[in-house]
Amino acid sequence: MAVGIFDSGLGGLTVLNAAQTRLPDVEFLYFADSAHAPYGVRDAEDIYQLTRSAVNDLWNRGCNLVILACNTASAAALRRMQEEGVPEGKRVLGVFVPLIEALTERQWGDNSPPREVETKHVALFATPATVSSRAFQRELAFRAIGVDVEAQSCGGVVDAIEDGDMILAEALVRSHVDALKRKMPHPQAAILGCTHYPLMEKSFQEALGPGVKVFRQGSLVADSLVDYLGRHPDMAGAGKGGYLTTGDPRRVSDRATQFLRRQISFEAA
Ligand code: DGL
Questions:
Q1: What topology does CATH give the domain 97-216?
Q2: pLDDT value, residue 248
Q3: Of 111, 113, 95, which is closest to residue 197 (Cα–Cα)?
């Protein structure tokens, strides 16, 4: 039994890495649905079915808690999965809320009414499916008033990262930031609303300029996981962690090793 971390591909490694640093004694079982990535260009039903099947797999392998380290799955599938009910003793959580709590200067789990916050002009960079779901804006509206969000759907970036073509990924990031700036010339903050994008954080920050505060999920999700497991220690379990992929394990291992700069070995899911 280990904590499950799910993503369509390699992006969730940015969350896994932060979680492993904060929780060195916890085992993690990472699942990359590489055969079906990217999710961001799929419709909501498709994303739901793929996410559901991967999460079921992680539950069946003994995980009690699964983190959707994927904004696209969190936006398109999480609420439906929770509403339909999860098996007894199992939980599935997403990655939106910790980030929005940080942006709106809230403590973990603060459910007080929405209020005015310091940051008023926010750029959201996410996949086409996350942008069209408007899930980010919905969660933000529960917590803050008067925040202007301009969303930029970043087509192509996830594919380029999954293919290891970082030159293309960088060029795409620059052109998506330019497109965003035409709509919102002076954002105060930028949300990297896809777990793949922190792998390109330097490019986002350079294109946005030094005055823009960039929010990403890794450490924020890790902090909220520390808090959650402190309150629900039984959800951490013990036992075998590892790395699973529906794609080619050798290829996925090579990319993951390149991104995390340590040896990562995936096995076939
Ligand atoms: N890393 C994912 C996310 O956070 C998925 C991207 C994709 O598969 O398109 O949205």
A1: Rossmann fold (3.40.50)
A2: 98
A3: 95
